[in-house]
């Protein structure tokens, strides 16, 4: 995760259409939130790719992703 954060931080470009004033606390909170959401979605996709079984139901997949966050 550190590499993803550093890449985002060093990029200097907004990931979204940030609605807040540049360099305000709200601006950076929004940017951090968006970067975290992007990283978490990628982590869930990676987890799914590595652990998915063809016989799993949608509910089992959702439970496995939720459990990942509890580890």
Summarize the structure.
This protein has helices spanning 2-11, 25-51, 58-68. It has 71 residues and is mostly helical. The longest helix has 27 residues, at 25-51.
Features:
71 residues, 3 helices, 68% helix, mainly alpha
Would you give an account of this structure?
This protein is mainly α. The protein has a domain at about 40-70. The protein is built from 3 helices and no strands. The two termini are about 15 Å apart.
Shape: elongated
Cα gyration radius (Å): 16 Å
Structural class: mainly alpha
Specify the biggest β-sheet. Answer: none
Spans where pLDDT lies below 50 across 5 or more residues: none
Order of helices and strands: HHH
Counted by DSSP, the helix tally is 3
The average pLDDT is 80
Q: What is the count of β-strands?
A: 0
Strand percentage: under 5%
How far is the N terminus from the C terminus? 16 Å
The helix fraction, in percent, is 55-70%
Topology overview:
Layout: H1 2-11, H2 25-51, H3 58-68
């Amino acid at each position: 995760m550190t590499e993803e954060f550093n890449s985002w931080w060093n990029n200097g470009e907004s990931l979204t259409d940030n609605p807040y004033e540049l360099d305000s606390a709200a601006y950076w909170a929004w940017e951090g939130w968006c970067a975290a959401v992007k990283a978490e979605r990628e982590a869930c996709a990676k987890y799914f790719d590595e652990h998915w079984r063809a016989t799993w139901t949608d509910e089992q997949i959702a439970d496995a992703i939720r459990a990942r966050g509890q580890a």
